[in-house]
Design brief:
The complex is a heterodimer. Chain A is α/β, with parallel strands linked by helices. Chain A contains six helices and six strands, in the order H-H-E-H-E-H-E-H-E-E-E-H. The two termini of chain A are 34 Å apart. The chains are: A alpha/beta, B alpha+beta.
């Protein structure tokens, strides 16, 4: 049986851990609020852009622009957005496993599937599993997430699509639903999907294009990719803080439970010690009589 | 004519403006454009420049970076990379950027990749300073 001192030490260390997890939870909550705001305020831009694109695609032939052409299944690229830091529950594992599953499921469909990863944790998770598929890793994006970062990745992806290194590009990330729930989401980045199924007949106003249609398209379409990536990064960032908050919350609760149990054990041990001492004293005084 | 245009301006970070205005002047990529209520649907790209709009007789200026603009049904949607109102512009920073851009342009030739980058940085700085002067 553990001595009193040992138990006391143990309680102290669990308390320390609890303090840390509590603090981390608080920090995550604050960061979550900011990340959530950023994700929400980025939505109008993406929505407007999508709207314009839908309007455009209703008047355009499907192959009006290289970025719209379906090239069949050759090489594919997945842009996987994960976290740089750990201690956020299943956040990275979930999305990384989804990537792994995608690769296994589509092995026949594509010639090859490469992975581009943002975030250190995703790289570490997948290196031993599908390491040969990883072509590029971006790290430390989360701290100061700017549109520029997203558009740099976007340009890289667009040019690799244009020179036919890849025939399809997907985006895989944790979409933010609420502070406690993230949804692993797979989106097609390239070729850009033109949603022709959507019937909005009344809305067929003819535009005047300046300078001309192709020019406008070739400026807007790459933008679309950037925006989707930016949005993915923001959402994933918000999700990460949410996941960390939830993980730290349950860690704090587990710690509290553990402290309770240990305290009980400590008190029992203390009582037992007192009883033995008393017995010793009593038997000692008995023998003196 | 009592009709007004609804002007909506969004950047990747936030919605900058959503207002009823009387008249808009934008820096289209083929030259300046004036928009009044009842304009035909239009989709155009924008270049770095000064977007101004008139509201109740007052003129407001916004420095915009690359973007584009959609007109339809008296609704004008402007999607730009950055947008700064005259009172948001940091004049000191713009001046410093102007100096930097000028310096590096001197050492670069037109063939350099960085030339166009610095040139647009220069343009942005000039526009910012110009607009800041009009507040």
């Amino acid at each position: 049986m553990a001595s009193l001192k040992d138990i006391k030490k143990r309680i102290g260390s669990v308390k320390n851990t609890q303090q840390i997890t509590k603090a981390m939870k608080m920090v995550s909550a604050a960061k979550l609020r900011r990340a959530q705001e950023a994700a929400v305020s980025a939505r109008p831009y993406a929505e407007k852009l999508e709207q314009v694109l839908i309007n455009l695609s209703q008047r355009e032939e499907a192959d009006a622009h290289p970025l719209l052409v379906q090239r069949g299944k050759g090489r594919a690229l997945i842009l996987l957005i994960t976290a740089d830091r750990g201690l956020c529950g299943g956040f990275t594992a979930n999305v990384s496993k989804a990537a792994e599953r995608f690769i296994r499921d589509n092995e026949q469909g594509f010639e090859a599937i490469d992975l581009m990863i943002t975030g250190r944790k995703g790289k570490e998770f997948l290196r031993s599993r599908v390491g040969e598929n990883i072509v590029k890793v971006h790290e430390n994006l989360g701290a100061n997430l700017s549109y520029k970062t997203a558009s740099l990745i976007g340009q890289e992806i667009v040019s690799s699509f244009e020179d036919e290194t890849y025939d399809a590009v997907y985006l895989l990330y944790n979409a933010f639903e609420s502070a406690i729930s993230q949804i692993v989401t797979l989106e097609q980045l390239l070729p850009i999907k033109t949603e022709t199924e959507q019937e909005t007949e009344e809305n067929t106003t003819d535009y005047i294009y300046e300078p001309d249609r192709l020019e406008v398209l070739s400026q807007i379409l790459p933008k679309m990719v950037d925006v989707q990536i930016f949005r993915g990064l923001l959402e994933s960032n918000a999700s990460e803080h949410g996941a960390r908050m939830a993980a730290m919350d349950s860690a704090s609760r587990n710690a509290a439970e553990m402290i309770d149990k240990l305290t009980l054990k400590y008190n029992r041990a203390r009582q037992a010690a007192i009883t033995t001492e008393l017995m010793e004293i009593i038997s000692g005084s008995e023998s003196v009589k | 004519m009592a009709e007004k245009l609804t002007l909506e301006m969004v950047t990747p970070y936030k919605k900058v403006l959503s207002q009823e205005v009387d008249e808009i002047t934008v820096p289209g990529s083929l030259g300046e454009l004036g928009l009044l209520p009842g304009h035909t649907p239009l989709l155009t790209t924008l270049k770095i420049g000064d977007l101004s709009y008139k509201q109740d007789g007052k003129l407001f200026h916004v420095a915009v970076n690359w973007g584009y603009l959609e007109v339809g049904d008296d609704k004008v949607t402007v999607l730009v990379d950055t947008a700064e109102r005259a009172d948001e512009i940091d004049l000191e920073r713009a001046k410093a950027a102007l100096g930097r851009a000028e310096e590096s342009l001197k050492t670069l030739t037109q063939e350099d990749v960085k030339f166009t980058v610095m040139q647009s940085a220069l343009q942005r700085a000039i526009i910012r300073i110009q607009i800041a002067g009009e507040r």
